[in-house]
Design goal:
4 copies of one chain form a homotetramer.
Chain A lengths: L20 H19 L6 H8 L3 H8 L2 H24 L6 H12 L7 H11 L2 H31 L8 H21 L6 H15 L12
Helix pairs in contact in A: 1-2, 1-4, 1-6, 2-3, 3-4, 4-5, 4-7, 5-7, 6-8, 7-8, 8-9
The first copy, chain A, binds a DNA duplex (21 and 21 nucleotides) through helix 3.
Chain lengths: 221, 221, 221, 221
DNA sequence: AATGAATGAGACTTCATTCAT
DNA sequence: CATGAATGAAGTCTCATTCAT
């Protein structure tokens, strides 16, 4: 019934005895993401995680002290991975404001970030009150930073064209909602909706808000 | 030791010894929604539900056979409640296409539908793979119907103005994503984001897509 | 290795399904005492207790909420049993003060109270800081009551003879220490020291303090 | 996450990399006593002991082979410490029998022996059947020796006065019980009962048994 | 001589489900 | 219809012990 054979992953060296703590932590976090994608957050147990990691039961508590903390560290890893990606995309100072805004959009729907496996973790946290508290605490600063940068870019774009009637705040709140809405679509209907679909639709959205700066993506032409 | 006082709800008559099955079912579904809002879907047990309902342990299994089924029936109730609402809003045949589209939007953010208590149930289902399957199966037809109606309205509006470059499909996919994105916002930040905020932002979105049919909502002016 | 067969005790009726809570509680407390006597307090697990009681694992938590509480209720049972016994022995108002004091002594070393099985519970609680706190809280009132009664009797006896140099307080503190010291002796060397030995030695102790009221117990004469 | 700071004790030299085995053993035994006083015998783990000692996890097993053995060695240390003390007190051959008996009493309630920290160890062993076996085995000879010496002194005192009715055996059994009873008092109510209180009460006890040799301790006079 | 990562058995507790009453 | 005692599997976490380094 239940699979008892270990799904030991990675080379024999990575799963060997007495590995450096950072290696084990990364290995366990990766296994946690897999487990959440497969069994859900509440279906994820110390047992599913360590079995996927190819390690023994006790080791997870040894490195993370508690399950709650392990889940929290997993979310933190994803949040930092996302943050690092869009910050890196913005580093090129030769980009225009419009290009920078698109870079942030692209980071959201980058295959490394936006795949059903990792989205399952985010929505696992959204789904439970206790985890939502964890989430709020964890992304507070990161989200505030992205909001400031994004709204700043919108304001800069607004100044560069005839956009008197466009409210940058309103555009950004819509844009941020689109991120989440498309994420959910990709999570629930992975075969019908992709990150690239999301990118195209966001392009169309931006083209309607700032026609001089973004061109709509024309389907099959 | 200390007996937890029952949170018996409703009048003594509704909670009496022998109530008609439909009453008990409704009572239990309401308690289930409360429990999910308070403890999350995985934190919801037969015990939390029956305690909130002010009934005995065994009764839920008696009426719903299993926990899985009880949760499923709860989701079905919400899906039908939502469906009934927007269908009712569309019933007035004197409405224009644009007004009808706005009516659907309003139904999404109606206080009866869009409150943290009920949103918690939806996102509880989104958060777990096993429940996502239930969700997909349950809303398949209902969502398809709403999609057809909505896209039809978009196409009608498109015909009524100079909207050659507007793709109704694209607009609707964005609009549906906005629903979910705003729902998530309301769930996570109930004190910072309301259904009315969502309505305004959707108005702005529609005004950019169909400027001749929708006017942007101007903040306090 | 480990005995797996249930040591179901009592008649089939007492262990049957759906017994009144008081019956189950008493049954579990009795099994707890047995388990502590056999495996010690820290060696007592929900598993040893329920196995001895012939019940399933979950039932102990159902009736006592937690292991800690079950242990606490077990101690309370013993404390009340002891209290009830010496109070009953004192009820006969025709007894002299000396006879009443002896009655309290007898209650301490009564076979129902002072047997290795129950002493193991008391000293199990004495042995661990966390349990000592529980003990202190639990016996506070009961011990104070016994102290008041005992010292009162000592004072009365003192008035009835030439005992100017006898300090009732000092005698009672010694007597109470003797109780505990003999209890420990009986617990550790059950084959070498009995409750009757203790009674005799206490008689000798009292005879030295109040020679006019107590006669020493003369060994084999 | 947060690294618990080690409670490394002693000077840096005693805790250095490579210390002589006897030093390490003494260091670990001291830490074991502390741990038992703080967490109880069953709450004492290899981890609590090594953390208190400021050493690494594996070291205790290295020096003591097993936890059981480490606890046993700790008890042996205390038993020998006690034995050495009363033997030393008796060494002065100019003392009378009565003075020698008092010296043994004093040794029992000497601050070095009779403090809540070390009493916690003794009663930790008394509290569990498995540990009681260890205790019996360990103190067998030591207790027999003290018993012989003590009864011998009682007999000598008896010969020196008009104590025909006094049974030395009975007195000593009471006296030994008083030791344990007062120990328990000091352990459970350290703020209400001290070793000096015990000494006074024992003096009163001896004064009643051998009035010509011991004078009662008169409270503040 | 010393470290600390790793193991795995076992503890307490929770909970969906069953069933006598 | 309804109650609530009872079951037993499963989850999280602890810990003595082992062992590569």
């Amino acid at each position: 019934m239940a699979k008892k054979t270990r799904e030991r992953r990675g080379s024999a060296t990575t799963a060997g005895r007495t590995a450096p703590p950072e290696v084990r932590r990364a290995q366990l976090i990766d296994a946690t993401i897999d487990s959440i994608a497969q069994y859900g957050l509440s279906g994820t147990t110390m047992s599913t995680v360590t079995r996927i990691a190819g390690l023994s039961q006790g080791i997870a508590n040894f490195h993370f002290q508690s399950k709650k903390n392990m889940l929290c560290e997993t979310l933190r890893f994803l949040a930092e991975e996302h943050h690092d990606l869009w910050k890196a995309q913005l580093a090129d100072s030769s980009l225009s404001s419009a290009e920078k805004l698109l870079a942030i959009v692209d980071a959201h729907f980058h295959a490394k970030i936006c795949n059903p496996r990792k989205l399952a973790v985010w929505f696992g946290f959204f789904g439970e009150p206790a985890h939502r508290d964890t989430y709020r605490e964890l992304v507070k600063d990161i989200d505030a930073e992205r909001w400031e940068v994004s709204v700043g870019l919108c304001r800069a774009i607004r100044e560069q064209g005839k956009y008197e009637s466009v409210d940058p705040d309103s555009v950004m709140r819509n844009l941020e909602a689109l991120y989440d809405g498309f994420f959910l679509n990709i999570l629930i209907y992975p075969d019908m909706f992709s990150g690239d679909d999301a990118k195209r639709l966001v392009r169309n959205f931006l083209a309607r808000a700032f026609p001089e700066h973004f061109s709509p993506f024309l389907e099959r032409s």
